[in-house]
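The protein record reproduced below.
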Amino acid sequence: MRLSRVGNVTAETLRVRRQPLSDSPVIESLTAGQKVKVTEKRLIKDTVWFRIVTPSGKAGWVDFRHLKLENNPDGSLS
């Protein structure tokens, strides 16, 4: 599902992965409070993943549980 949202990193350290898989190579690490552009949402093997663009311009995937979408105070996905 295509998205056009802004998200805030909630994890102390968040690994941005090349593919939406927990064993995919890490392409960048982010820290709590950083803002990212969220461009896509996918369900892969019972995990929801967000495709993001990092502040440095790299595109990758993160587990949705570690982002809070702006303008959505309850943290829901809609």
